[in-house]
């Protein structure tokens, strides 16, 4: 039986259509300043309806991200700050919440896999912290970006993968256990490796205080992840309902950071947005390809190769945005991470669904 949407979801869809028709009418009449507010209203209504319509549900997070981008571009003044309080101060606690939520999904068994399957874990870590940083540096030089914008592209390459990679690995029916371990281990290694890579590759583009960056990343990643790990160990069975909603906290945090970064960097994004989209597309897709084929050359299983491909090509854009905020350079250093996020999710979703439709043949693997 065909699913009938609740009236509320139907109402949001009708409102979205109304906003779009109104926007089209204003475009025809030349009232250009009113077009984007209408588009923003349509996107917000579509996002509200996405959770209740099966055809949209798998794309709900991406729709909300797109909505945050449109609203941030349309109403930037709303999301800069209130009085003397600047919303950039929220980046650190939001990322800490996201990383804590990630920690609640981990257990000590996830780290024990480093011993049980060292080959796959080491290969994934090496690919993660070599392929993407050098790709970012190469793209920056090839396209001739201004120093702080270019440093943002390098920064995207130097951070580890995030929770989204594990979701895509699950959709692709690859090695979820390996993905969880790689995400956890690379996140804990980030305070050591990311400052070193940034100093090496982006030191000529932007001033890097490696000591401060190490401490900031420790506060952003290691401490929250360990806190989440402790929660998983002691509180998981006592507050199961809270564990179930933790992923939603992460998604809300990512959407909020996207909205704030877009608003703060709107002028630079209008100037460089199209070329940044191209660069981020090249960065992520090259990461998938190189991650996969390097592991193929190492004779790893197809499942492991697919997993490492996602871990390499998908980066923790939220962490990169928080680093930019800690350096007070969200409008420049933070642009590439916030563009990379939606582009990464589109390319990864496409690849994951392709691999899901082409399952691994155990006899040929």
Account of the 3D structure:
With 365 residues, the chain is an all-alpha fold. The protein has one domain: Up-down Bundle (Na+/H+ antiporter like fold). It has 16 helices and two strands. It has helices spanning 7-29, 35-50, 54-57, 60-74, 91-104, 108-116, 118-143, 147-158, 163-172, 176-202, 210-235, 240-264, 266-297, 302-313, 317-326, 335-357, and strands spanning 81-82, 85-86. The protein has a two-stranded antiparallel sheet. A hairpin with a 2-residue loop joins strand 1 (81-82) and strand 2 (85-86). The longest helix has 32 residues, at 266-297. The two termini are 40 Å apart.
Draw up the topology in text.
Layout: H1 7-29, H2 35-50, H3 54-57, H4 60-74, E1 81-82, E2 85-86, H5 91-104, H6 108-116, H7 118-143, H8 147-158, H9 163-172, H10 176-202, H11 210-235, H12 240-264, H13 266-297, H14 302-313, H15 317-326, H16 335-357
Antiparallel strand pairs: 1-2
Helix pairs in contact: 1-2, 2-4, 4-12, 5-11, 5-12, 6-7, 6-10, 7-8, 7-10, 7-13, 7-14, 8-10, 8-16, 9-10, 9-14, 9-16, 10-11, 10-14, 11-15, 13-14, 13-16, 15-16
């Amino acid at each position: 039986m065909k699913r009938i949407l609740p009236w509320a979801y139907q109402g949001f869809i009708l409102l979205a259509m109304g906003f779009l028709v109104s926007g089209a009418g204003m475009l025809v009449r030349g009232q250009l300043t009113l077009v984007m507010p209408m588009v923003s209203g349509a996107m917000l209504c579509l996002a509200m309806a996405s959770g209740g319509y099966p055809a949209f549900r798998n794309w709900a997070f991406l729709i909300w991200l797109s909505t945050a981008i449109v609203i941030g571009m349309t109403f930037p003044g709303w999301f800069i700050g209130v009085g003397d309080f600047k919303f950039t101060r929220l980046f650190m606690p939001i990322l800490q919440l996201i990383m804590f939520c990630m920690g609640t999904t981990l257990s000590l068994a996830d780290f024990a896999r480093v011993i049980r399957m060292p080959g796959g874990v080491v290969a994934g870590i090496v690919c993660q912290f070599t392929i993407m940083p050098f790709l970012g540096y190469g793209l920056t030089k090839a396209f001739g970006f201004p120093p702080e914008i270019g440093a943002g592209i390098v920064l995207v390459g130097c951070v580890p993968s995030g929770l989204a990679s594990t979701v895509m690995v699950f959709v692709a029916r690859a090695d979820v256990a390996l993905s969880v371990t790689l995400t956890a281990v690379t996140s804990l290694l980030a305070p050591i490796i990311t400052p070193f890579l940034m100093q090496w590759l982006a030191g000529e583009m932007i001033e890097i205080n490696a000591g401060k960056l190490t401490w900031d990343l420790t506060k952003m990643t290691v401490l929250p992840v360990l806190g989440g790990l402790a929660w998983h160990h002691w509180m998981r069975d006592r507050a199961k309902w809270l564990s179930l909603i933790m992923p939603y906290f992460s998604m809300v945090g990512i959407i909020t950071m996207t909205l704030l970064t877009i608003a703060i960097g709107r002028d630079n994004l209008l100037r460089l947005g199209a070329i940044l989209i191209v660069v981020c597309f090249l960065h992520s897709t090259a990461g998938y390809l190189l991650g996969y084929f390097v592991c193929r050359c190492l004779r790893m299983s197809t499942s492991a190769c697919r997993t490492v491909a996602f871990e390499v090509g998908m980066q923790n854009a939220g962490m990169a945005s928080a680093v930019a905020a800690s350096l007070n350079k969200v409008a420049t250093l933070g642009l590439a991470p916030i563009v990379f996020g939606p582009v990464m999710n589109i390319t990864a979703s496409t690849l994951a669904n392709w691999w899901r439709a082409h399952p691994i043949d155990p006899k040929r693997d």
